[in-house]
Amino acid sequence: MKQTDVLVLGGLSGITAGISCRRHYPDKKVVLVRKEGTVLIPCGIPYIYGTVGGPQNNVIPDGLLEKNGIELVKDEAVAVDREKKVVSLQSGETISYDKLVFATGSLPMVPPIPGVNKKNVYPIKKDFGYLEEVYEEMKSVKDVVIIGGGFIGVEFADECRKGRDVNITVVEALPSCLQMAMDDEFCAEAKDKLTETGVKVMVSTRVEAILGDDTVTGVRLAGGEELKADMVILGIGAVPNTELAKKAGLELGFNNTIKVDRCMQSYTDPDVFACGDCAEKISFFTGRPVGLMLASIATSEARIAGANLYSTVHQNCGAISVFSTVVNGRAFAVAGLTERTARQCGMNIVVTTAEAPDTHPGGMPNSSLTKVKTIFAKETGVILGGAISGGRSVGEMINVLSACIMHKMTANEIVQFQMGTHPALTSSPIVYPIVNAACKAIIPIWQ
Amino acid sequence: MKQTDVLVLGGLSGITAGISCRRHYPDKKVVLVRKEGTVLIPCGIPYIYGTVGGPQNNVIPDGLLEKNGIELVKDEAVAVDREKKVVSLQSGETISYDKLVFATGSLPMVPPIPGVNKKNVYPIKKDFGYLEEVYEEMKSVKDVVIIGGGFIGVEFADECRKGRDVNITVVEALPSCLQMAMDDEFCAEAKDKLTETGVKVMVSTRVEAILGDDTVTGVRLAGGEELKADMVILGIGAVPNTELAKKAGLELGFNNTIKVDRCMQSYTDPDVFACGDCAEKISFFTGRPVGLMLASIATSEARIAGANLYSTVHQNCGAISVFSTVVNGRAFAVAGLTERTARQCGMNIVVTTAEAPDTHPGGMPNSSLTKVKTIFAKETGVILGGAISGGRSVGEMINVLSACIMHKMTANEIVQFQMGTHPALTSSPIVYPIVNAACKAIIPIWQ
Q1: How far B251 CA lies from chain A's nearest CA (Å)?
Q2: How far apart are the C-alpha atoms of A168 and A335, rounded to whole Å?
Q3: I need a labelling partner for B205 at 20 to 30 A (CA). Which of A378, A429, B272, B326 fits?
Q4: Which chain B residue has the Cα nearest residue A12?
């Protein structure tokens, strides 16, 4: 039997948890067990099919583990004996641990649509070999139907078209794509950008059946309409991968995630921690469980879990929900609550917007119009959320908002924000839109 | 005699102060007096000579004033009678005010070098016509010497070379360019980028004389060496434009700036406010006066001043010092203290670095390596400053650091930062360098 101090089960957040542990407890031995030899950068998966040109260009280098003194065991954990503190692997090997970290992530949701198991119908798994097969298969297809217009669906649609003569249709059950993530005006802007590329978007409709014999030939929509398809991609979301945790007797919470406290310690066993998509998330804003699965949350939790294994260092402040995407060259990002979610929570809010070119003057090369929307609590003036669309700088502007949200900054404080500006890199300081959106909120907050 | 509620004297920060006042006190009449008909975006001035192609492409639209109901008077204020609350203009007109805002900015420093008044020796003034003259003149020059290797000097050198067959030499008195602004390793990186373009950089030397009859023909350095020059640009800094304020009897403080309190109200007269380069700045970190002149500070002060004219809304938290620049396509930025300034203040600090590509995978198009350096107070773990070099995203990443600094976040808190990430827009969440630099600081802070 192999022995270790810390045993980590899983992928991306497992790496981060392992590194965090090694940093805090350099004397502890850390072993990471995962099935996959090669691990992909999860957020990069849609980009395999366009911009980055194949799965081999999207791998997380194992050097990251070696460099941090983490031993990698390529195997699958199949059972956990928490009493004996031993994990059994698929190969028959066993590993004894002192502290165990579940970072087992999530699995793609496969909807119970008739025909979902036909050939060329692909849920988006994270396995290298599987995604390579999809990549090869995509070389010869003509008609792709993507079920689900969330991030994965929209990013796949935008990437698959690149360098391919292929008809792509996104089918979304809600009235617009990305509706779970963004407010209506941003969804509309994203849809316009996506359809500009030739991708067809069908909303407020469902795929009722996947047609064909062995291999898919089309889909039938709820209204009876049929669409030709020689490939179907399922992008309707993911479910936490917590079968093993359940078998190990760990208490599961919201949506079958592992119940953890603010230290990322499992409710059930003080020697078992969890982080990432498999762990329960508590909203930063309400304290209630929320069903978010984001890299920004997973890696934050992993850093907390790794640091807390032998002594509590960090307490999780809750999931803020920060993310960004790109549709046909335009970036979209959200941090915290949207107007829709805030109103659904019954919050009394002040909503403001501001826009400005992301260079100054706007005539500089590669200038894009940045549109910012901010949501403040009316009673306190505290920022609750924001959304941005624009050019490349959106990716870090949303992190400016994330820092403001994490620190419960008020509109009054954001007005005073001292932002560095440069003609080629940012908006002019006079019109910097995050600050100007806050300026516009001051009076409505008072009134 | 013309009458107004609020009279603003000056340029960039004057516009922002005016808009802020109109937003808070929509019933108040606001008049802005400035000499220049057309006002340039100050940070864009070096870019006139390269990227943006002429001063006409770098003007602040007067529509900004109209849109906000601010009346523009193109004239020069020559005297202030604070007792009668009347300002006299060059034209002979007078304007009575209730509240007066000095936003008179700064003027380029002209060093007492023999020959500094010869033709084709140009301090960098902000006047449109003047900069147009420099632009026309530059079309025929062959040898440009830039005195001063600070931001203005380096940005001019980098821009003037674009599309021109011209020899450019930067002469800097200190041992490296940008040394007042950045730590040595960033200065060295910037110098490498600049010299790659063919610009010659001479450090630790001074221009002792400007040669030629009427028109410059060269410069003589302290060691006796002579450089050919048919144009000399002076980029050695600026002095606050406070002659009029002094004549008006306002108390001046550090470096002849107008003494103001945290509300931006002048020490001398409760009806007179000041903001921007002409107003005294207090360090966010030490509470002492500091000689910073930055757009990030000026516009923040202007927003505060405008809001406080009739009732105190905001209190200035002090100057953080946040800025960014671009040298030959690579961006450099600093927020807060550098390692050098922190050590000069005798602070006990922990310094860490981290680097990562600004896309993930790093093989995405337009990927740059981002290098981050962070400075924490050892006793408290509070972030005091940071510097970044990299690609375009540096412009907003430095604002993430600015938000962290403004809120006195500790390394422990930054470790938990939830940053949105996207393959095309940011580093991978595993290696996001601001967070990883904070992670590396935790143990050294404890020890």
Answers
A1: 25
A2: 30
A3: B326
A4: B430
Pairing of strands A281-282, A289-290: antiparallel
The residue that leads in pLDDT, A386 or A11, is: A386
Give the closest residue to A247 by CA, choosing from A136, A87, A394: A87
Do the chains contact at B442 and A24, CB–CB below 8 Å?
Answer: yes
Asked casually if ipTM beats, i.e. exceeds, 0.90, the reply is yes
Sheet harboring B383-390: ordered strands across? B322-327, B330-336, B383-390, B369-377, B349-357
| CA dihedral over B49, B327, B193, B426, signed as positive or negative | negative
Helix (H, G, I), strand (E, B) or coil at A238: strand
pLDDT beyond 80 at B37: no
Task: List C-alpha distances in Å: A307 to A18, A304, A313, B326, B437.
Answer: 9, 5, 6, 37, 15
- A256-313 residue pLDDT tens: 999 999 999 999 999 999 999 999 999 999 999 999 999 989 999 999 999 999 999 9
A238: CB partners within 8 A, 6+ apart: A106, A107, A108, A109, A277, A293
Q: Quick one: tokens of B165?
A: 């067959």
Residues 6+ apart with CB under 8 A from B146: B153, B156, B157, B168, B169, B170, B171, B232, B233, B235
Residue B346 sits at the chain A interface (C-beta within 8 Å): no
CB contact at 8 A, B18 and B70: yes
Query: What is the pTM assigned to this prediction?
Result: 0.96
Strands (E) located in B65-149:
70-74, 77-81, 86-89, 94-96, 99-103, 106-108, 121-123, 143-147
| Structural domains in chain A plus CATH codes | 2-35+75-107+239-308 (3.50.50.60), 121-236 (3.50.50.60), 329-446 (3.30.390.30)
Q: Do A396 and B425 touch (CB under 8 A)?
A: yes
Per-residue pLDDT band for B41 (boundaries 50, 70, 90) equals confident
Phi/psi at A130 (nearest 5 deg)? -65, -45
Q: What pLDDT shows up at residue A245?
A: 98
Closest-CA residue to A95 (of A39, A32, A37): A32
> Across chain B, what does the average pLDDT equal?
95
